[in-house]
Amino acid sequence: MSRRWPVLVLLLALLCAGAYFFLLPRMAQSAVEKSFHQAGFEEFSYDKAERSAGSVSFHKVKFDPDAFSHVDVITASYDMAGLLFHGRLTKLEFENPSLMGEVDKQGKVTVAGWKNIAPLPASINTITINGGKISLMSESIGGISFNLDGQFRHHSDGGTAFQGVVSGEQKQLSINTSINANIRASGIWQADLDIKEARIDIAPLKASRINGKATLKGEKFRIAHFSSQLQAGAVNYDGLPWQGMAMAIEGNPEKFGLSANAASIGVDGLYLEIRLIYSKVLQDLDCRIRMVSLDTLRDYLRKHEYLTKEPSVPSKAKAELVMTKVIGSRYGYEIKDDTGLIIRKGQVDLVPGKALKDNMKSMLAELED
Q1: For 142, which of 14, 21, 192, 339 is 20 to 30 Å away at the CA?
Q2: 291 contacts 318 by C-beta, under 8 angstroms
């Protein structure tokens, strides 16, 4: 009987070694394929898989037949007990993943090969992204690309947490922000952004040295709500520059409100306050410019080539310009001195897509009198 024990131990060792070197890598390969299908990548495929003790690597991974969305290498790591008894993988590591998609007018995102945003499958503890890239096409601003590095971690309640950094540098937009996000098992998600620095150059708006906080909420690929508190060192709208802008934005892609405050650049003494509601077109606007004097506003507009000549009647008294909606695209304006006396008034049409100087033509003519 005692002679049989060494034989049994040897057989058991051989079985464990066989499981570890031959069975488990194939189980891990199958678990990865199943996990991607569960996560919405129904066309997941790869050129080859390399199996070794403790890991499986997938090379030249494609998420769609045309490889618009792809990964150079995905490596799945596992331990024997977790995979054999629970079917779990300890980690997936992505090297140079690239996703390509589109954003429609309602803010819905479509990604090539990704049918549905879902929490991390329960069979995976963590996913690490190294050298990721996301490219999106939008009808309003064209193509934009972002770099992504971070980690997804499985929650015990079935959801997923993400921590990472998004950055990008291009003509229309640059950004560097950290992200903390959570995806519930139902597909509802929230992302909190800490924007370190950003820049926008999408005509007629330019803004630089942007920083602040933002929160996005949604379900699956749709953004349902967003809010932000931002600061911008410099803002230029259609040739009119401002500095030290503080702004708050809240709403959704179909309707949102914005409030902002800033001071003039080039000529001191102008202070801008804007409150607007936007829904497909500008629905409501309340714009106020407090000024040291009406001549200060004239100097500012002349410096930035909105006015071309000196006024016939100077005005040195403190004043305020107030612009409010009348109906449709028509807005009324009043300029009052510090006693409340109206010294200029009229109406303008703010036509979408038309240059601000052309929209304000009648008011500019009044200011030159």
Answers
A1: 192
A2: yes
